[in-house]
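Researcher: I'd like a structural prediction for the single chain below. Treat it as a standalone chain; there are no partners to consider.
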Amino acid sequence: MVKLEEVFLSYLDQFMQQWKVYLKQQLSLYELRYVASDAGDRVDIKTNSLVYFRWLRTTSRAGDNFDDSRDDVAWVMLEKQLKIFAKKAENGTFDLVSKLHLEESQIHIVLNFSYDDEQHIVYVS
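Model: Treating it as a single chain, here is the predicted structure.
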């Protein structure tokens, strides 16, 4: 039997990987590169996200209103959104599996990311 916390962490990891794919695409688009280290994927995703947020802030309208600390806020906001979606996915998956008799592997959730240059945050939907 799989514990609910393991399901939550599984979705959180899955959503972090979706963000990583999006992040790599965006960095490549702007001729920046994703840097991997020995510190682990979580640290690398955060570090590269902060680089991306800094670049976005300095090249968008947000640069006029925010300083470096806002990049950390953008990361915290993104991470919170991913955790909220992971919790929703955990609950929704449990309902679908029990009510519709689906296998968990049949359920695939894809997130969309969009940047708000006025608030300097990434929205997840």
